[in-house]
Amino acid sequence: MASAAAQEKQEEKKKSQNNTLNNIVNTLKERITLEGYMQLGYTYNDQSESKTNTFEMTRAILMARGRITDHWSCYFMYSLAGTPKILEAYTEYHFFPELSVRIGEFKTPYTYENPLSPTVVELISCYSQAVNYLAGINGSDLLYGSNSGRDLGLMIYGNLFKNLINYKLAIMNGQGINKKDGNNQKDIVGTFNINPLQWLTLTGSFIKGKGCAIATSNINPNIQIGDNYTRNRWAAGIVMKLKPIDLRSEYLAGKDGLVKSNGYYATANIHILSKQKLDLIASYDYLNKNKAVDNKQSNYVAGIQWWFYPKCRLQVQYTHCVPYQNKSYNLVQAQVQVRF
Predict the structure, then answer these.
(1) Is residue 74 classed as helix, strand or coil in its secondary structure?
(2) Which residues contact 5 (CB under 8 A, 6 or more apart)?
(3) How far is residue 198 CA from its own chain's centroid?
């Protein structure tokens, strides 16, 4: 009898342990969401000084979101391509639709295009020249030196008047991804989107700050490494989402010290076969890094993309690049995107 009672007690203990483990697993499933994507491609570039003919892994990203409570969450994004690094790490609290607070590392809320995920941007090169330069996405702004368009800071955001207005306001280091501030100044960054119609968005954004130069640049030779300098930006644009076509366009301007820059882009996504998820892509973008000396370039893009599975696509694009002071060149790209 004693042996039977002990065996029954042991089975109850084992059952209790299994129930506890199942509860933990179920809780993790409910509270942690994992996502990821890869973009693999091919690039041919006939520019005389930097010819390219290569296959490449453009991006390999892992994302995790944790739901702590119904209002409190955290987010983590990690890049596995090239040199592995943390892209985003923040926590945020949603008080109500009109107000949420985020602190950590995240995308700088400047321009409409920068916060967009590369998985939805139409261009294989991802973002226009002006956005890449002025938002610090590809390192082309040597004084700023940042890439990925991210920074450390605190942001409030929300939707007002039943989604008529979306806003984001942030205080950020102004030094770029994974970096402490280089001076005692902070950038004030803001974006406001007005949605007067379901298919129409009017957008405006700005950065007002002081940069700390991490390198020298022939665009702005008067600023030396370690110098503090005015680093201001603004942008205004329009987004239209119609059944046959999506159109996005922005005008951007910047001032670094005494040097002024500007640029603009217009990108169209034409849905030619909606059932087959086949789109034509056309884009024009222009950037002048220094308006005083006309250091400018125009890019003309034409391509096609096929969404062969939800969130997965195949893209092929041709770009004709026309620098003002150098010989024009051509870029042929193909890319496959897989996302889960």
Answers:
(1) strand
(2) none
(3) 24
Summarised one tens digit per residue, pLDDT across range 48-63 is 888 999 999 999 999 9
Predicted structure pTM score: 0.90
Longest C-alpha distance within the chain, in Å? Answer: 97
The answer to whether residues 244 and 236 touch, using CB atoms and an 8 Å cutoff, is no
Q: What is the DSSP letter of 316?
A: E
Q: Is the dihedral of CA 171, 175, 176, 179 positive or negative?
A: negative
98, 89 in Cβ contact below 8 A? no
The Cα–Cα gap between 117 and 111 comes to 13
Q: Sign of dihedral through CA atoms 181, 175, 230, 114?
A: negative
Radius of gyration of the chain (CA): 24
Instruction: Please state, as a whole number, how many other Cβ atoms lie within 10 Å of the Cβ of residue 220.
Output: 20
Using a 10 angstrom Cβ sphere, with 0-12 exposed, 13-18 middle and 19 or more buried, the burial of residue 244 is exposed
- Report which DSSP code applies to 147: B
